[in-house]
Design goal:
Shape: elongated
CATH class of the largest domain: Mainly Alpha
Strand order of the largest sheet: 1-2-3-5-4
Strand content: 15-25%
Number of helices: 7
Helix content: 25-40%
Distance between the termini: 49 Å
CATH superfamily of the largest domain: Recombination protein O, C-terminal domain
Oligomer: single chain
CATH architecture of the largest domain: Up-down Bundle
Largest sheet: 5 strands, mixed, barrel
Length: 253
């Protein structure tokens, strides 16, 4: 059986003399492993697929329990990512984060769209820190890790400016002043963020990258959101042990 699907190579591992094992983020099947025979041979028609970031149309065929590459039509190889070391590091961070968060054989069209949108943005946009924050927020939302900052985790009161709200990172959400007061002295630690930071988080998760880039965002609030996201990732996604994260720590507002 043959399967036609759009997708992007998240990871390519050399196999034997001229083959490759691909981790493919496909539109129809989600994250799948694909055996690509002879694609590392010089002048092979699908040679481009042996590199990470290769994006295009894939024709796959089932070979027992394995998927095997039949043909590949390249739409974009994202070669421009090699022009700048920060672009390269960010791109590897985006695909590694996607690969770790995705569940095998489960589609995630919205994350695929956000990944492609972020990679293309690195071509012309110099605000790398904003693209990084945007993708990190989208990844949280589309993979089921979205923090609850719209209302108190305990009493359910909607967050507004009338009373202070405090973020409890282990619980993944905010508590109002009254509910926080009930737990004082129990070795529970809270962080207070500006209400505008939560609004920016909601905005990042809801809107497109183009709208985010057009918005006037305070540098102070952007730095605070970056601190929020780093804190949240370290607690809830630290077990992913991303190799690329150390190379993008300096890309910050």
């Amino acid at each position: 059986m043959y399967i036609n699907t759009e997708g992007i190579v998240l990871k390519s591992v050399k196999y034997k003399d001229s083959d490759a094992i691909l981790t493919l983020f496909s539109k129809k099947m989600g994250k799948v492993t694909v055996y690509a025979k002879n694609v590392r041979k010089m002048n092979h028609s699908s040679m481009a697929v042996s590199q990470s970031f290769a994006y295009g149309n894939f024709v796959l065929r089932t070979q027992g329990k394995m998927l095997q590459l039949s043909s590949f039509e390249c739409k974009e190889n994202f070669y421009f990512l090699t022009e700048d070391i920060d672009k390269t590091f960010l791109a590897y961070y985006f695909v590694e984060l996607s690969e770790k968060l995705l569940v095998e054989n489960q589609t995630n069209h919205r994350l695929l769209q956000a990944l492609l949108e972020s990679l293309y943005a690195l071509k012309d946009i110099e605000k790398y820190e904003l693209v990084k924050l945007y993708f990190e927020c989208k990844a949280l939302r589309f993979c089921g890790y979205q923090p609850q900052v719209s209302k108190c985790l305990k009493c359910g009161i909607i967050r507004d400016n009338s009373i202070p709200f405090y973020f409890q990172v282990e619980d993944g959400g905010v508590y109002c002043y009254h509910c926080k007061s009930e737990t004082e002295g129990h070795n529970i630690f809270y962080t207070q963020y500006d209400n505008t930071t939560y609004q920016l988080l909601d905005f990042m998760m809801r809107e497109s990258l183009q709208q985010v880039m057009q918005a006037e965002i305070s540098s102070v609030i952007l730095k605070e959101l970056d601190r929020f996201v780093r804190q949240y990732y370290s607690v809830h996604l630290g077990e992913l042990q991303l190799k690329s994260v150390d190379f993008v720590r300096h890309i910050a507002p």
